[in-house]
Design brief:
Strand order of the largest sheet: 2-5-6-7-8-9-10-12
Largest sheet: 8 strands, antiparallel, barrel
Number of domains: 1
Length: about 190
């Protein structure tokens, strides 16, 4: 009986002291499963796992080209998009959280929250972007980055931007929930700058 009690106590202590990631499914803290499936179906590689690399730093995505969209748009695959700079910082490996800044086409996004999954040198970052338009209407978008950390740079970086919740789109300006596009660094290397 003493051994059984000791075993149960040890099991309880281990369960209470160690981080349990079983309830953390990448994308599920703010991205509904149907939107996450649409992102994957559009070609975004998703690296699952709970031991992503430390990807802190600022990276240049150039040349950035459109790979695919799951909605009708004028731009075709291969269309050259403006260069993009992404900065990852405040990576917390215990909670799998990260902060993100972006720069592209003269616009800056600062301090976006997100989380990261992956293992070894492969990672996926899910960024939560809440935006307010000129009418005061708020929408929820996600940017998803996947790649492989290699010699200080990122190899095969992909970037998806998808509508998560258009919150009714009262002015009829937005793509539908679950719609978006996938782009990639066309030369395969996003240099750390």
């Amino acid at each position: 009986m003493k051994n059984l009690f000791g075993f149960l106590l040890l099991s309880f202590l281990l369960a209470s002291c160690c981080k349990d990631y079983a309830d953390l499914i990448p994308g599920q803290d703010f991205i509904p499963s149907d939107v996450l499936k649409a992102i994957e179906d559009n070609g975004q590689i998703i690296y699952n796992g709970y031991t992503p690399p430390k990807i802190e730093g600022k990276y240049l995505i150039s040349p950035l080209v459109l790979v695919s969209s799951n909605f009708d748009e004028l731009a075709l695959p291969g269309y050259l998009l403006p260069d993009y700079i992404v900065e990852f910082y405040d990576f917390d490996p215990n909670n799998l959280t990260i902060r993100v800044n972006t720069e592209h086409a003269g616009n800056k996004g600062i301090g976006f929250g997100g989380f990261v999954s992956g293992q070894s040198n492969d990672f996926t970052v899910y960024v939560k972007v809440e935006s307010t338009d000129s009418y005061g209407h708020k929408v929820l978008i996600t940017e998803v980055y996947s790649g492989t950390l290699e010699a200080g740079n990122i190899r095969n970086l992909q970037l998806s931007a998808f509508m998560v919740d258009d919150r009714g789109d009262p002015n009829g300006e937005y793509i539908e929930n679950g719609q978006g596009r996938l782009a990639k660094d066309n030369d395969g290397i996003s240099e750390k700058i």
